[in-house]
Structures
1.
Amino acid sequence: MKNNEQMFDFWKLLEYNDSMISQEKLTILTESAKYDVSCSSSGSARKNAGGIGNGYVAGCCHSFTPDGRCISLLKILLSNDCIYDCKYCPNRVSADVPRVSATPEEICELTMDFYKRNYIEGLFLSSAVHKNPDYTMERLVLVVKKLRTEYNFHGYIHLKGIPRADERLCREAAKYADRMSYNMELPSEQSLKLLAPQKSKQSLLLPMRQLTQEKRQFVQDKKKGLIQGHFLPAGQTTQMIVGASPEADGQILRLTQALYRNMDMKRVYYSSYIPVVHDALLPEVGAGQLREHRLYQADWLLRFYGFTVEEIVDEEQNLSLEFDPKCAWALRHMHLFPVEINRADLAQLLRVPGIGVRNAHKILQARRYTRLTFEDLLKMKIALKRAKHFITCDGKYLGAKNDTTVRGLLIAAENGENAVQLDVFGALPKTNEQKIMLSTRQNALMALTGEL
Amino acid sequence: MIYFFEETEDGFLTAFLAAFQDERALFAAENTQLVLGEERVYLQTDSLKAEKARLRLQSFDRECLSDLRLLLRCGKTDRFQVAFGYLKAVANAKAPVRARLADRAVFIAMEYVKKVRYEIHRFHGFIRFMETASGALYAPFSPDNDICDLLVPHFRARLPAYPFVLHDVSRKKAAVYDGEHVFVAPLTQAEVVLSAKENEWQGLWKQYYAAVNIPSRERLKQMRGYMPARYWKFLPEKNENASANR
């Protein structure tokens, strides 16, 4: 009896050991993949068809790392053995790092076992360009196809596209993946030439355009009932490195807007440059987190707030670091404010600094039943630190008296100093207001003479 | 007047009817501080009355009962008081009130509903299954709200072939899916024998968690905001003991 049990365990061990990835390999292939920003698992409603897994339209985070990022997908490279020599990349061919490749089975088993334990929402598979683009893309397609057909996996798959690979491989991949992404890497052709000489704008835009057009066609045909199946249900995304090359925010955001409009991108990610590699062509210091943050704020304004890039920033300029882009816009357009909370339409509410999409809708709903006062807004937990300078409630205004003070207070708010608590039962005490003006006059002057 | 009642939906609705005209009604929950001099009523659950209340409330707002069901699962001790305030607002308005956020009672009720919904969403991600020797999956956790059975549909849809147990350790109950049926049962301590490879997979997961982090960008406050420390106890990547050789 005892012997039998041992035999059983032995066979089980054999079966597993074939394809369980080693800790070392996992570490190398993860560390090579971790600088990719995207980890979203939203947008796919794929159903479970008799196997394991399904899509979660809203997306789902499974853990958070000490750098504040979420883990939603198992983000890993199939191989870090690269023939390209992109200056900024830790895996470039000229770098002296250990090279490993995982087998398709290792990736599949890892995905299945992590998924089953609810560690992850799916797989984010990418690869260094191993041997040549076609070979690499073939391997990637092999893994996702295996996962879908042999392992019967219906969870989320995000696949990174390899530029210059055959368009048929790209099409095949789109049948199995939920989302694909080709990274723009750098916001201009010149920078690509300098820092990623084997990639060109054309080699990146071509497959993106192909997928966009094929997806549009697929959606039409599916509506007519001509075809079934999937074609990138969660669309495409892309990513740009910010701060490794000299492009201004204005230029970056113009590219972003074009990508949203012409390529149906779901998201454009910005990754502020982290100097992991030293090269004479690269800056020695990383781009600040704040710059990345401002770019995302502007990106949100483009997608959810009805702004155009021309309203946000000039082509050759950077976003203000002192104010968020909406505040900066509002300060340039003070003649449009204050707006009356009880009358302003959605578009107007969305342009008030400090009022987001959710709160704008909350206000629209609540004011159907009562005339909203500042007290009501506080009860609804709507933050007024910024907004109070740009709105009236039932005719009452609680903001600062002149534009200079507004600027000062907004900078203070941005710096996290709780400048003045809003007193709902009266305007600001005068002494307090003067004190604030004095303490931030220098800031205010800087703001006046600065980029605004 | 202080109302004591059975803590079920029927029990609560019985009390709701009894207290409806009472401006100063207090709904007792576990560890309620008894106010001196207040009268007390102990109510016997009346399912017929409760059903009547349900029908009436439903005629004002078809969705308000599902709000109520989430409210009653909230882990806050004043949930019954809040639920009372909310249903009273529905009954007075004779219409849906969920958008009337300037009304304090409605706002708080909606906050509580949101808390419960948000925690359900969070645990769709934070549940950690362990594979047992029989192949069934076992996940101990300790949520703020009473939600273990509300998580079942999600996991059942994605893991239809795997029996699983979602064990709410602090409420000593478990939602069980046996591969076909779903039921809730009291469960104090589970005897679990882990599969041969479970510890190795957990080890790989911890390794992955460590490798995917960018140390030069530490933002602990952010991490804690998204994943509060009270949930860490059952996450292998955050707690060495979570592998729990139970």
2.
Amino acid sequence: MNRKHTTLVRDTLLIITLLLIGIILLFVLRGRSNEGSYVIIMYQNEEKARFSLASDGIYNINNGKNRIEILGGKVRMTYADCPDELCIRQGWIEYDGQSIICLPNKITVMVSGGDSLVDFVL
Amino acid sequence: MKTRKVARIGMLMALAMILSYVESLFPAFVTIPGVRIGLANLAVIFALYTLGFGEAFAISLLRVVLSSLLFGTVLSLAYSAAGAVLSIIVMSLLKRTRLFGVAAVSVCGAVSHNLGQIGVACLILNAKGLLYYIPVLVISGIASGLIIGLTASVLLNRIGSGQEGIEDGRQ
């Protein structure tokens, strides 16, 4: 009875450990394998402009109300005419699906593209 | 005794094949490549606990070869065989420590099965994007391993007792 009990505890611990490893890997690997290849600028859910992440530089967007900087495959907001400037504080983004949103100006800077997952059959 | 053993291996072998086939009938199980319940592993675990490592190894490998020939492709044989071999070795080692129950053995078997497959896929396709799959396969392996492990545990409790004698000649 006691032996069975300790086995159950060990089983549970082992499975939880594996699960934690899996979840950690999920976060570690997700970012690394999907670096974006371009930036989409959206105004009210409408695509306004598109920049390649490979072309370094500083670009004015939204009629000069916002400014983004692209450097080494990453992008950040460097200027916004809004008072809170939360989007600037968010810093660099580089992975597919990441985005910076400037709510007052209704601007979304979204990273997209990247390595497409290879389709395969197991 | 020997004839009984041969018959038992053949029966479990056939059962593993049937379970493979049943699983291949359900497309819901294979929506994400590599994510499967692994019903056939039930027969393999049962063999591991009632017969032994060699018998379970043979059943697992033959099952993979035969079901790949029947329902799969040549490439799927390479993936599955690597997974099956790694899985049965890990399960046998873990069982031998006598520290863990069927559920944990099954979970580790399922996870190592998935890792073996993805390992071979990485070697063959040499694709970085496959790394993204590893955590998905680890977590799905835990889920399917747990289902199979708990089922196997019930199964071994109900009809597995009294059969351990075949494994080591005692009892």
